[in-house]
């Protein structure tokens, strides 16, 4: 489950951010825990960026209040435990553990992890035909080669899908290639018909193993939230920064602050559900419009007994792209759980949100029965996500769309009048679309506010 794995070998170096959270959380501006100042900060959103910033600010003497629209903190770090085990609806993996700030944070928070091995896999074509490892590996290697150079043929006005089809027409309808583009590009980078053909490979990554959380990614959010003043079920509708004190309207109540940090997802910003007075600068509204917002939905199915291959990943190459073509064997991660996790991406992911549970199960079982035979049983339970219609996210994570320029991420990170600040994965130009990017953005903005004192 490497994120942007294809650029891994092309990086010439990583930025200064290769530090543990304890280092990131300290600076020459740090105040003693008992030394407070008279400045109040309202953090809008209790995801990992908002919580990281709030903790940093509180530790530096600020009066901090986190306003969270949902009934608990975490944002897109959301864990479902209704079946007696941990199913992460949003973030699941630490993508590259070497130098990644989430690695050390996970250790501090008590988040347990399991290393997933990309090469522990089997790939099936329609009819349940097992694909040879060499066929899969050769296609994968060719994909990486293409992805490392295709931007040289890119065009600012044309999508990844268009350029790829022009260069490799023989691959467009090939089922294995549709699968590879779906799970290696759409999953990581966004809708192919709107993904920039120039910028699809932008962003950096940490090296090392890929590790999946086994006791819930929300462990991180709960750890960071400890000791913070958090008000849940508080939906912010207006931020008025026209005077010296900023007025934040939430659930019809107005609370004043010296600084406000806005950490809501890009999808929420796109929906204009928060009124800003004065209006946001054109550079920021343009960036909000130009960045893409991907949708990935997860589906977890359980059975009384496992009937599938004893490998980490099982892939299936149907005619329709982005549709239940990749299965994570949860039993390899948690031997006591007989479950498979699968995905839907982009437009098909959005389409699933209007489908019933029964329809979802039927579609997934069509693929599994084609692999393992019609006698396999139906699942005992289904858990699913609906990130596109979730009013608190309106999508999964940002990506570089055809209209995107890389400065748009920096434009979103730009503070306004040293009063209103912005964090979230969509404001982190090097690590957008990732948990570590969101975390680092919160630390970044907290440091900006601290430097004003």
From TrEMBL:
Keywords: Auxin biosynthesis, Oxidoreductase, Signal
Leader peptide range in chain numbering: 1-25
Coiled coil: none
Cofactor(s) needed by this chain: FAD
GO biological process, one term: auxin biosynthetic process
Pathway this chain belongs to: Plant hormone metabolism; auxin biosynthesis
Chain sites annotated for binding FAD: 49, 68-69, 236
Top EC category: oxidoreductase
A Pfam family recorded for this sequence: Amino_oxidase
Binding-site residues, substrate: 343
Stored PANTHER family: FLAVIN MONOAMINE OXIDASE, LYSINE-SPECIFIC HISTONE DEMETHYLASE 2
Protein name per the record: Tryptophan 2-monooxygenase
């Amino acid at each position: 489950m490497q994120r942007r794995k294809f650029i891994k070998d092309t990086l010439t170096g990583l930025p200064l951010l290769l530090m543990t959270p304890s280092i990131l959380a300290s600076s020459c501006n740090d105040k003693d825990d008992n030394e407070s100042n008279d400045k109040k900060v309202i953090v809008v959103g209790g995801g990992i960026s908002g919580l990281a910033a709030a903790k940093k600010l509180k530790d530096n003497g600020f009066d901090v209040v986190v306003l969270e629209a949902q009934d608990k903190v975490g944002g897109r770090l959301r864990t479902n435990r209704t079946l007696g085990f941990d199913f992460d609806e949003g973030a699941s993996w630490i993508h590259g553990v070497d130098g990644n700030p989430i690695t050390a944070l996970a250790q501090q928070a008590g988040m347990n992890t399991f290393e997933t091995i990309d090469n522990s896999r089997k790939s099936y074509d329609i009819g349940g035909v097992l694909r040879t490892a060499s066929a899969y590996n050769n296609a994968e290697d060719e994909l990486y080669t293409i992805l490392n150079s295709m931007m040289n043929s890119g065009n600012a006005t044309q999508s990844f899908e268009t350029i790829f089809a022009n260069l490799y027409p023989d691959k467009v309808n090939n089922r294995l290639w549709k699968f590879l583009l779906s799970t290696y590009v759409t999953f990581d980078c966004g809708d192919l018909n709107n993904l920039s053909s120039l910028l699809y490979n932008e962003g950096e990554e940490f090296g090392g193993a890929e590790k999946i959380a086994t006791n819930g990614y929300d462990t991180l959010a709960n750890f960071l939230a400890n000791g913070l003043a958090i008000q849940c079920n508080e939906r912010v509708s207006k931020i008025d920064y026209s005077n010296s004190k900023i007025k934040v309207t939430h659930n019809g109540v107005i609370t004043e602050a010296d600084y406000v940090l806005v950490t809501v997802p890009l999808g929420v910003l796109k929906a204009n559900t928060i009124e800003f007075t004065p209006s946001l600068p054109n550079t920021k509204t343009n960036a909000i419009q130009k960045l893409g917002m991907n949708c990935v939905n997860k589906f977890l199915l359980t059975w009384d007994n496992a009937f599938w291959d004893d490998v980490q990943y099982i892939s299936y190459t149907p005619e329709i792209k982005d549709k239940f073509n990749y299965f994570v064997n949860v039993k390899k991660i948690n031997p006591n759980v007989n479950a498979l996790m699968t995905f839907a991406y982009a437009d098909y992911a959005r389409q699933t949100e209007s489908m019933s549970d029964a329809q979802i199960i039927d579609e997934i079982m069509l693929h599994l029965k084609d692999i393992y035979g019609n006698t396999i049983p139906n699942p005992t339970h289904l858990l699913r996500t609906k990130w596109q219609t979730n009013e608190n996210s309106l999508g999964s994570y940002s990506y570089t769309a055809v209209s995107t320029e890389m400065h748009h991420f920096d434009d979103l990170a730009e503070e306004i009048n040293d009063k209103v600040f912005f964090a979230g994965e969509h404001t982190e130009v090097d690590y957008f679309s990732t948990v570590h990017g969101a975390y680092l953005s919160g630390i970044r903005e907290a440091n900006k506010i601290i430097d004003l004192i």
